Amino acid sequence: MSAILLSACLFVACPTETPVRVTVVIVLATTENNVVDPKLVELAKEVQKRDPKLTGFKLVATESKSIPVGNSATVTLVDKKQLKMKVEKQKDENGRISLTLMPPGMDPVTYACACDKFFPVVTPYRTKSGEQLIIAVMAKPCTVKKK
Q: What's the pTM value of the predicted model, to 2 decimals?
């Protein structure tokens, strides 16, 4: 009985890794206009480096999830499409968090997410009106101080 109590006390006292806050920005891009949401100006510039035909960028939604390391969460995008995300590893010595994203119509993408930086993914999915789905993902906590 005392061994069970002791192990229970040790279990409670052991620190666990904190969950990672993952933020997903859902964007629709188009070739039909050049209206760019002011919040998406920098994202638009980055996406246009690879696909200059995309000229209009509309912010659809932003969603955040708290995900324990090793676990997954799902975010509903547009047209009932979903983005599944898994936090692979807690932050490394450079403050990067390893995530795996499973966007609609794509193979899984695993990368190390830099603190306070969004990672844009241009998916092949298009809405009925022809808008292209883009997701931008950022993970925190960010405890590494900038030099």
A: 0.81
